[in-house]
Each structure stands twice: as C-alpha cells, then as structure tokens.
C-alpha cells in the first residue's frame, strides 16, 4: 500500500474539518462530493482508524482524526514553502497589502510569517481598513493587493474561500438574552453592519449599538466583557469568544466571500505575494481560529 501523503488528500481532510460537511468541502475546493469522499477513504485506509463520525447534520473528527489536524496543517504549510522556494525569483521590493479589521488578526499573521521566510528581501507594508476603502485603494494604486470580505465578488476579484457570518459573544455569556440586544458593529463603511442590522430588523429583534468602530480591539473588549454580541466570520473568532447559536432568538446571517484583488499593473514582488496569499488562504492553512 502507498503510505505517502497526497496534498489533495490533506486539503480535503482539512476542508471537511473546517466545514463539517463533505458538500461544503467540495464547494470550497471546487471538487465533486465523490472526489472528497474518495480522498477521505484513502486517508482512513492509511490510518486503519475511522477519522470522522456523524453528529447530527455535521461530520466531526474522531479522536484519531483530531490528532491529525495540526500535523496535516503543517504538512500543507511545508508544501507551500517548497513550492515558493522552487518558484522564487531573485528580486527585492515592497508590497502594500490591505485587509479589513475583522480578518486581519486570523489571516495576516501566518501569511506574513511564511512569506517573510520565503522572500526575506521583500518588505511588506500592512494596511488595515474596511473593505470599501480597500477596494478604493487598490483601484487607485495606493496598495498593491487586498483581501476583502464581501457578500459576492466584484469585477477583477478572485474568491479564495467562503465563510459564514455568525453571532459571537463571550463564552457562557448572557448579552444575547438582553432586550434590546446590545450589538458591537463596525463603522458606517463596515460591510457586516448593514447585513446584521437588516437581519435584526427582519427578525423584529430590538437592538442598540454598544461599539461602532472598525477596530477589533474595542469590539473584542465589549464581547469578552459580555456587554454585547457582534457579527464575525467563523474563521476569525478569537479563542476567548464563541458562536451564539441562532436558536437564541438571533437571526441567521449569510455566507461571505474572502476575495483577493490586485492592482492593474502589479510589481513582481506583489505578484509573488498574491500567489502566496492565494495558496495559503485557499488551502486553509491561514484563517483558522
């Protein structure tokens, strides 16, 4: 039996871990459900143990499967580094990279760390703004590329993955039960704000704003203090917080896209960084809480 790990099998494994569904994993990786199931079977044959079990409508890892998560993530990261080293051109420069406050903490650190190792001569300048402002900056040439959070994907953008917007609060918190509902929202330019407000109005849930800034630190402070709930993407939830289930009189929120936009005439350094972002985000090796 072939005991070598296939990169496609590793990606399928992590996609099912993250989504809890073969169907969603297939959509994320642009494969058929049958292909995902076949890759999981190959991995379980190598393990000689079942790696997944069904819990209601979700597929969850068994203890044997959970033990593999970190190692598989490291395997994919190492694979990406090898590919980057093989393709690395001999150039220097600066890349201006933008990301919104709601995902910068979960997506940017692993991307920047791995890119710095692969391209130590390229300097990366990080810009944190709301998606609306980042799109304007890319179009105007103020930054070289940006990750954005959007309901869809605009012209010139590339969707790297999907993630659901969820209500988040303090662990074992009670803010979700208050009336009116205390909510921490971004500034007027935050793309989550109108979506959350519209959902609350349709659900006829009274609410009041507690924090209205596009900055994760004050938003997180209000959540950890159990003063409010907030709409965040599932992959961007800090360990100190948890998802508040929609059965607690909170409306269900839609899926969002994590998109990549590049300047019209990118520099070689920016192109290398964009390829690195694309591999890391699409493979699931960035953006995991």
Keywords, separated by commas or semicolons:
alpha/beta, D-Maltodextrin-Binding Protein, domain 2, globular, two-stranded antiparallel sheet, 9 helices, 289 residues, 11 strands
In CATH, the architecture of the largest domain is 3-Layer(aba) Sandwich
| Strand/helix succession | HHHEEHEHEHEEEHEHEEEH
For the largest beta-sheet, the strand count, sense and barrel status come to: 7 strands, mixed
Extended strand count: 11
The shape, in one word, is globular
Write down the CATH class of the largest domain.
Alpha Beta
Give the class from helix and strand content and strand pairing: alpha/beta
- If you average the pLDDT, what whole number results? 89
CATH fold category name of the largest domain: D-Maltodextrin-Binding Protein, domain 2
Q: So how many helices?
A: 9
The radius of gyration over CA amounts to 20 Å
Quaternary: single chain
> How big a fraction of the residues is strand?
15-25%
Q: Gap between N and C termini, in Å?
A: 35 Å
- Approximate helicity band: 40-55%
Uncertain ranges: none
Q: What number of domains? A: 2
Descriptive overview:
With 289 residues, the chain is α/β, with parallel strands linked by helices. It has helices at 7-19, 22-29, 33-47, 63-87, 101-118, 131-140, 192-202, 216-224, 268-283; strands spanning 52-55, 58-61, 93-99, 122-128, 145-150, 158-170, 181-185, 207-212, 230-233, 241-243, 255-262. The protein folds into 2 domains: 7-85, Orthogonal Bundle (Arc Repressor Mutant, subunit A), CATH 1.10.10; 92-289, D-Maltodextrin-Binding Protein, domain 2, CATH 3.40.190. 43% of the residues lie in helices and 23% in strands. The strands form 3 sheets. Strands 3, 4, 5, 6, 9, 10 and 11 form a 7-stranded mixed β-sheet that branches. The model has no long low-confidence stretch (mean pLDDT 89).
